[in-house]
Amino acid sequence: MALIITDECINCDVCEPECPNEAISQGEEIYVIDPRKCTECVGHFETPQCVEVCPVDCIHPNPDYAETREQLHQKYLALTAQKGSG
C-alpha cells in the first residue's frame, strides 16, 4: 500500500530526501507522495524511512492504493530497472 501525507504536515522538509524512490515532492500546500513510486521502502529498507523521520506522524497508508508486500516488491524491481536503463 502506498503512503499518503495528511494535512497535519508541517512542511519540515525531512521526509523528501529520505525517500529512495523520489516519490515525495512539495505539493501546493504540503508534501505529497506519488503512489506510483511509493513502495513503503520495500526493497530498500525494513520500514518506510519517511515515517521514521516524520516529527508529526502525518504519513499513513493510503487506502486508495492497497498493495501486498509482494506487489510493493515488484514495483520496487520495476522502478530500479527504469533507473538502470534511464
From TrEMBL:
Record's keyword terms, sorted: 4Fe-4S, Electron transport, Iron, Iron-sulfur, Metal-binding, Repeat, Transport
The UniProt entry's GO CC annotations, sorted and at most eight, read: cytoplasm
Query: Which PROSITE patterns is this protein grouped with?
Result: 4FE4S_FER_1, 4FE4S_FER_2
Q: Which Pfam families match?
A: Fer4_7
Q: What is the lineage of its organism?
A: Bacteria, Pseudomonadati, Pseudomonadota, Hydrogenophilia, Hydrogenophilia incertae sedis
UniProt protein name: YfhL family 4Fe-4S dicluster ferredoxin
Residue span, 4Fe-4S ferredoxin-type domain: 1-29, 31-64
Record organism? Pelomicrobium methylotrophicum
According to the UniProt entry, its GO molecular function terms are:
4 iron, 4 sulfur cluster binding; metal ion binding
Gene3D superfamilies linked: 3.30.70.20
- Which first-to-last residue range defines the signal peptide? none
